[in-house]
Amino acid sequence: MRPTRPLFAARRAKSARGRTTPVVAAVALGAVLTLTATACGPTEDDANSKPSAASPAEGDGIQVPDDIKDRLKEHGIDLDKWKGGEWKNWDKDKWLREAKDFVNPIIDGLWDSDRMRDADKNPDHEVDDNDISGDQGVTDPTPKPVKAAAAATPYHDSAPYAGKLFFDGPEGSMVCSATVVTDPAHPGKSNMIWTAGHCVHAGKDGGWYRNIAFVPSYNNGGKSADQLQGAAKSEVAPYGVWWGSWAQTSDQWIEQGGPTGGQGAPYDFAAIHVTPEKGSTGKSLEETVGSALPVNFNAPAVPEISQLTAKGYPAAPPYDGQKLYQCADKPGRLSLNDTDPTMYRIGCTMTGGSSGGGWVGQGSDGKPALVSNTSIGPVTSGWLAGPRLGKEAKGIYDAVSKKYAGQ
Question: Which of 66, 141, 157, 320 sees the fewest Cβ atoms within 10 Å?
Answer without folding.
Answer: 141
